[in-house]
Amino acid sequence: MSARTGLGGPETGYGLTTAVLEALDLTLGMGPRYTYPLLVDLTASWRLHLPLLDGSGNFGSQHGDPPADARYTEVRLSGIGELALAAERGEVGPVPLGLIEGSFYRGGRVPPFAPARVLEALTAGAPDAGSPIMPTGGTVDGNVDRLLAGRPTRLTLGSTIAREPGALVITEVPFDVTVDDVAVQLEHRARAAGHRQQADYLPAGMEALQPLTGPAPVRQVRDESSGLTGIRVVCDLARDADVAQAEAWVRSVWPVTIEVDSQLPAPMGQLLATWDRGDGSGLGRLGALL
Question: Domain limits of the chain?
């Protein structure tokens, strides 16, 4: 990308995003309608553990805000982006970005793993890199052993919820879920509690939703997220609400918790064992950047 677009790394200034898109269109034959969303993803820390690009301007947010028009943004390579290109050119050894990032961010089924755990597994010869870890944080549950064996597995991705006096606070949401959706759906569910939810038409195979019984343990939902506090969706609890039951109720609401299908291209032990260890300079450079 650097040779095609003239982008520099962290020590250089930003380049106009429109110029980058024009260069990609000339060399790859793909217009900005296709390449700009891909470029935006490469800047997003909530899409990738290790973004390849560093963006200046509005590139969207985890709240679901769209990025600004390309005319109003600029980009440059991140340190990881520079390292990836150096590895592609053969200037350093290979870098395990595929093992780290997976393909969830591209709509695929391969989950991401923690960069430090992948690096440790490759340098120390560990049999696996632990459970999948999402760039957004949150919880990952499911049959991880089945996943690491290379078999299709359904994973449950959950939000991180902190308990505070009189409230539950969501501080991390599942991958590919917006903070706004979490807040809106919780508020909607709290208002709807106690009322029968019945659709006039249901597609074949779908059962009617059961009535929600009893009052909701959550009386109000507020999104207090900011650049200083990070994600903070506050669920004020009803008087005398049981905290454990209230947390279970919150977690039952989509998309506070979601399910995703996942599968590795091969057993994790095989992926690690077949890694090219002839030149460890790429791993060394990666470790210095983590």
Answer: 2-91, 102-135+144-153+263-287, 160-255
Q: Is the pTM of this model over 0.85?
A: yes
255 preceded by a cis bond (ω within 30 of 0): yes
209, 199 contact by CB (below 8 A)? yes
CATH architecture assigned to 160-255:
2-Layer Sandwich (3.30)
**pLDDT tens, position by position, 236-267:** 999 999 999 999 999 999 999 999 999 999 99
Helix (H, G, I), strand (E, B) or coil at 245: helix
CB 20 within 8 A of CB 5: yes
SS3 content of the chain, % helix, strand, coil (to 5): 35, 15, 50
CB 35, CB 17: distance < 8 Å: no
Per-residue pLDDT at 209: 45
Buried b (16+ CB within 10 A) or exposed e, 223-254: bebeeeeebbbbbebbeebeeeebbebbbebe
Is it the case that residue 194 has pLDDT exceeding 60? no
Gyration radius of the chain over CA positions: 22
| Superfamily name and number for 2-91 | Topoisomerase II, domain 5 (3.90.199.10)
Give the β-pairing of 53-56 and 257-262.
unpaired
Residue 238 to residues 91, 165, 215: CA-CA distances in angstroms? 60, 12, 9
